[in-house]
Amino acid sequence: MDMNTKQIKHLKSLGHKLNPIVTVGQHGMKESINNELEIALDYHQLVKLKVSVGDRDARDALVQQIVETHKVLLVQRVGNIALLYRKNKNKPSVFEVSV
């Protein structure tokens, strides 16, 4: 999923006012969390995820695993909050801006 700088900036501005919808706790990813994240991405397209696992390396590895598993774009990551985007082909995208 290729996006230009203007589109990513727009997604960041939309994500700024969002609250985390899905939280990954100290026990890591579970199937129920994967299902919730999948549902949230299909419905909202732009989702904030809170990752509260061990150290920084574990958190980075888990975020990267989520990006690859769910085929999402990591728009931004600040601390333990990740902003994820995946376009739903069945819904009009309100997040993309014309170039």
TrEMBL record:
<keyword id="KW-0694">RNA-binding</keyword>
<dbReference type="GO" id="GO:0003723">
    <property type="term" value="F:RNA binding"/>
</dbReference>
<dbReference type="InterPro" id="IPR051925">
    <property type="entry name" value="RNA-binding_domain"/>
</dbReference>
<feature type="domain" description="CRM">
    <location>
        <begin position="1"/>
        <end position="97"/>
    </location>
</feature>
<dbReference type="InterPro" id="IPR001890">
    <property type="entry name" value="RNA-binding_CRM"/>
</dbReference>
<dbReference type="Pfam" id="PF01985">
    <property type="entry name" value="CRS1_YhbY"/>
</dbReference>
<protein>
    <submittedName>
        <fullName>Ribosome assembly RNA-binding protein YhbY</fullName>
    </submittedName>
</protein>
<dbReference type="InterPro" id="IPR035920">
    <property type="entry name" value="YhbY-like_sf"/>
</dbReference>
